[in-house]
Amino acid sequence: MTHPSFSGENNRALSILGLYAIETSISLHCLERNIEMSPKELSRKVKEISEVGTCAIDGTRLGLDKIVRVSTKTNSTVPSVVCGAFRAVFGAIGVDAGNADDAGEVFWNVNHHGCGGGGASAM
């Protein structure tokens, strides 16, 4: 795991891909549980579950703050650093698997924030 403060060769692109894989997975997960969820509620849940603070909590729980390489002037425990590393993990899974579905599946295995229930399921 390499933060941009450490090197020009870093995990920023993987972090962007990971964010999109996470957001897609959240959307799908929530709609599977409640197909009648309003667009506003879906957007709120996606934002809540994928925000920097939330993914930093999950990344810290995984110990990513201890393995991400940062410059001597950068604190590896800052939420934005941990979150970037967390998202990059899912980007890397997506690249390795050749699809975002596998990244989303792993995300739900390490994420402890749900979409809530209620309503009819599309599945």
Automatic annotation (TrEMBL):
Residue span, RNase III domain: 1-98
Any one GO molecular-function label of the UniProt entry: ribonuclease III activity
Residues passing through the membrane, by range: none
One Gene Ontology biological process: RNA processing
InterPro entries: RNase_III_dom, RNase_III_sf
Name this protein carries in UniProt: RNase III domain-containing protein
Classification lineage: Eukaryota, Viridiplantae, Streptophyta, Embryophyta, Tracheophyta
